[in-house]
Amino acid sequence: MKKSFDIIVVGGGSAGMMAAGRAGELGARALLVEKNDRLGKKLSMTGGRRCNITNAETDNRVFLENFPESKQFLFSPFSQFNVKDTFEFFEKLGLPLVIEDRKRAFPKSQSAQDVCNALINYINQSKNVDVQLNTAFKSFKIKAGKIIGINTSAGTFFADKVIIATGGLAAPETGSTGEGLNALNEIGHKIKEPDANLAPLRTKSKWVHKLSGTSLDDIGLRFIQKNKTQFKVRGRILFTHFGISGPMVINSAHKVKGLLKKGEVEASIDLFPDHDLGSLDKFFIKLFDDQKNKKLKSLLNTLLQKSLVEAMLNMLESDMIDLQVHSITKQQRKSLVQIMNDLRFPIQGTMGLEWSIVADGGVDPKEINFKTMASRLYPNLYLIGDTIDINRPSGGFSLQLCWTTGFVAGTHSTKGF
Ligand SMILES: Cc1cc2nc3c(=O)[nH]c(=O)nc-3n(C[C@H](O)[C@H](O)[C@H](O)COP(=O)(O)OP(=O)(O)OC[C@H]3O[C@@H](n4cnc5c(N)ncnc54)[C@H](O)[C@@H]3O)c2cc1C
């Protein structure tokens, strides 16, 4: 077994495969070390196994607005490899992409495994990359303050450059369990404690759990603290046996976590976000007038999902469920309208790392030179993908970050050979 390489890439996920393939393409003798028995385990699960491979916003400036805390770092790597390059890159590998709603791009084949296979082909094309599976990276091999290789479960491997692509802590069952971050911390890198970021939200409200499986397509969702709306979003919500989920909820988790640090948080669903309380009441006055002889429950069932109507009516006076519309009092109508405008429940937290798509935390971006992705502490060490602490929404932004940082590190680490 060869023990000495130009470059070692640790972690065979999205970012690591891109970096290893690029280094091999440029002629470097590279080793890709992965502890799983296959490459791209997390990648093959992405986007409901369809892989939301990037977001088709081709203006770098607009694209990077989605990285509010880190865009200043990202202009440089995105000037080297951006969304347009991602489209061209995968098309060249025989994997055309299609664009769906919210500019989300997917492989035309609708298969995340095809994305993995395309990257594996890329790695194999140059014949310069050795892949070492079932091998766990343990620590850096350091001599006179310089990284000269890595210690692994299969012994020590030496290289001039090392690229760390071991991921964050989200979905640890795919292999990203944090050893890479621990090793980086041991050699002096500052690591922000990982925590769930893009994750579903948890509530103890039983009526929410009971609605598990129900989804509402276009609702308003407010997050309230101390009786004041802190922020609101609009879109699709999915009820689950523990709380709420769906892209809109998952993308709110980062801010909700911040609020929970300051105190209790409530979520409030607005079932008719085009109406305020006054106009919703007017709408129901007219509706009740037109449908006087209908049972309230049957009328509501024509507007909303049955399970939701049941849950709402249970929150009101018990006999309302059987009332006919003409016998509903003004007060009862107002209570009903109030609930439809402000269906509240407490939020206890996120569902944690196991359920999260992306974790907060990782290497402080200030410790990285983003022109090359090299560490500012060790010039022959490169850090890419989810190992870096970069907050972003769902929608293809995470994988684009992997393609960009992987490409840039793969390119610059080969310089000087
Ligand atoms: C369910 C799910 C769906 C997602 N869907 C999307 C989506 O559609 N679009 C999108 O943009 N993003 C999506 N994401 C996020 C995206 O998958 C990640 O941001 C991305 O895969 C991170 O890539 P990475 O290479 O940095 O890390 P990872 O993919 O986590 O890869 C790290 C690799 O390093 C290996 N490793 C770790 N420690 C060691 C060690 N000590 N020794 C050797 N190897 C090690 C791991 O086994 C793993 O293979 C999704 C995430 C999840 C969990």
UniProtKB/TrEMBL annotation:
Transmembrane segments: none annotated. InterPro entries: BaiN-like, BaiN-like_dom_sf, FAD/NAD-bd_sf, RsdA/BaiN/AoA(So)-like_dom, RsdA/BaiN/AoA(So)_Rossmann. It comes from the Bacteria. Pfam families: HI0933_like (PF03486), HI0933_like_1st (PF22780). This is HI0933 family protein. Residues 6-411 form the RsdA/BaiN/AoA(So)-like Rossmann fold-like domain. Its cofactor is FAD. Keywords: FAD, Flavoprotein. Residues 197-358 form the RsdA/BaiN/AoA(So)-like insert domain. It comes from Candidatus Uhrbacteria bacterium GW2011_GWC1_41_20.
